Structure formats: C-alpha cells, structure tokens
Amino acid sequence: MTEPLEVQLENGTIVFVPEFDWSYQTKGLVLSSFFYGYIITQLPGGWLAAKIGGNRMFAIGVGATSLLTLFTPPLAHTSTGLLIAVRIIEGLFEGVTYPCIHAVWSRWAPSEERARLATFAFSGSYIGTVVSMPICSMLAHYTGWPGIFYVFGIVGLVWTTIWWLVVKESPENDPHITAAELKYIQDSRGTPSMNGSHIRHPWKAILTSGPVWAIVMAHFSENWGFYTLLTFLPTFMHDVFKFQTSQTGFLSAVPYLAMAIVLQVAGHLADWLLKMEILSRTNIRKLFNCGAFLSQTVFMVAAAYAPSVSGCVICLTIAVGLGGFAWSGFSVNHLDIAPPHASVLMGLSNTIATLPGIISPPLAGSIVTARTAEQWRIVFFISSAIYLLGAIVYGVFCSAEKQPWVVEVDSDASFDTDGASVTTTRGYDNKAIDTSSEM
To answer: What GO terms describe the biological role, i.e. biological process, of this protein (predicted)?
Structure first.
C-alpha cells in the first residue's frame, strides 16, 4: 500500500509516488489498530463461549471479520481514519476466537490428548501465515493490494459457512458421533460437560492464582516476539537486506512454516511423555515452555547480528519454530488447571497477550526511524529480554494440576459471582457421565 507507484504528470513527466504516503508511526498505528478491538472482547468472548457455545461464537467472530475485510479497500481509499476504524471493529469480532477454541476443546478433548489436539488447532494460525504471505505477495503484484482483502474475505465467509454446519458445541450434541467415541471422550475428559448456564467463574481465585499468571506471562512473551516479526519482518528484510515485498513474502513465511511443523511434533511429544510417565504434566509444561523461551532469546539476538539474509532467516526460523514447544506448554495449560474455566482463562491470558500487538508496532516504528540495522537490533533485543523474563516467571509459578478453586457446580445450586459463595458444590470426582445409551 505504501510502495512507490509509477505516475505520469500532466506535462508527461514520470514520477514514483506511494499510494499511501504514511510515516512509520502511521504505519504502526494502522497495523496495531486491529488489536485495540481485539483486546476488548477476549474476556467477554470467553464468557459468552462458556454460556452459549464456543462453536457459535467462533463462527460469528470469523464470519464478521471476513465480511468487514471486504470493505477494507474502499474505506482505505476514503480516509485513513475509516481504515483504522474498520480494523478496530474487525479486532472486536476476531477477539472471541481463541477463547472460543478453548471452550470447544474443554468439551471435546480427552485429557491425555490435549496437547496434540490443541497444538494441531493452533498450528492453523501459522499455516495460515505460511500460505497467506506468499499469496499476498502474488496478489499484490498481479491484482494490486485490494485483491488481498477481497480474496481472503470471500474465503473466510465460505469457511464460516462450513464450520457452522459441521462443528457442534460438544460431543453430546453431535448426531454423527459413535457411541464408543462418545464414551471414550466422556471417560477421559474426567468431568461431565456442564450446561453453560450452570458455570460460575471464581474470579477472585483466578486473579490471585500463581499458575494463571504464569500462563499469562508466557502468553505475553511469546506473542511479543510473534507480533513483532509478523508485522515487521517484511519491512526488516527490505530495510536491512534490500528485499522487495514480492521477494520477502516467501522468505518471511519460512519461520512460520517451521512453527507449524514443530507444533505437531511438540504436541505429540508432550502427550507421549505424559503417557509414558517419563515426566509429570507440570514438568512437561515447564520443560517445553522454558526451554523454548531460553532458546528463542539466544536466536533472536543471533538474528540481529546475522551478516547475510540466509543467516538471518535461519536464526529467525529456529527462534520462531521453537515457539511450537512453548505453545505445547502454556497454550494447553488453561485446560490442565481449570477445564470448565478454560475459555475465560484463555480470554484473560490473550487479553494481556494482545498488548504486544498494540505496543510493539508503534514502539518499533519509533525506534526504527533511519531504517538501519543498528536500530532494528534494538527491536530484537527487546524481544529477547521479554522471552527471558517469560521463562523465569513460568518456570517459578507454573502448575499443570487442577487447582483447588476449580469446582463443578450442581444444576440445582444457588450462586453469587464468586465461586467461594456457591452453596452446593462438589469437587472433581473424575467420573464421566455415560450418555451413550441416549444416542
């Protein structure tokens, strides 16, 4: 949108001017505006997902965002203010998606398969990045940048329709599930799938829980590095190594391809270690998350000093790829410590983890004013320091055991807003309800 275009003046002179002559600060504002809306709906999205079903809220979020994407080009041509406004609204709808997925997994995922199922789903984010970066480069080259928004908007609407028709809130509501599969999920899940209206979240206990804040810090740290690279990697490649946008699309996608692959390996490895009882669930989460963060700290610094584009891409590929192990730690930890509250816990952690998307682009834009390698190194140093802090906090406070404040509420109980005031509660007894006879 900001690359120079060939323009012929009235006197026949050919000049090159950008279609949108934005400063780095304006670019940062446009990129980060999405997250202004995204951060607002994390907790409400998790709460609504628990109440009315994660599958429905997820479809609404993706469908509305896809529809708004189609309006982005005309609004951008109208004014920068309207472009920023529509991106904020897109963020409002997209903000419900991650909490909704945890609401779905809390009902569908057997306990011993959480890591590989959740990481398989999360890998879609990175596969999407891998696919979209080169496609965006080609669309921008052959159709102009508006084609990017039209193509992905339409694809999003088609996908939403399929999701709405196929995905059910819980296995109990799926007419196509077999009795054996339903019983397996229920027995392994360890708790009946409660009606959303009966779930009450013990907010005081949640907000004072060390394991919860360990997840929050890990999520924040991983997203800082991810959002920094996602928004500025093509610009960094152009400034430091003089790559054009059409070339950076493929190179920029390589680190996220590594992440998508590593996520699959890490999820299966985590569940295998748990099944073989080689390590406890807590130690598996700590090993994967902290080991990844410490390695990412090293390779982000190495990328900042890489003398060639190949060396830089290798370092960034390793750094981003190792994030797959981190996601196999903290991203399924919500389901470990509090399955009925996993959607709101994801909403809480993703609320804080969205702050990097708001802070990082303007901060990088204010640092990289001369577009030099030295200034870009500062951006990478900040990411490395945050990874290191995340490793320390998660290593100290992480737990993967059900927390004492997690209760399953009887349907005839009376409540107020704090779980401590529930008049009729019972702890987890790990006895599933076998409803296969009803199917």
So the answer is: carboxylic acid transport; monoatomic anion transport
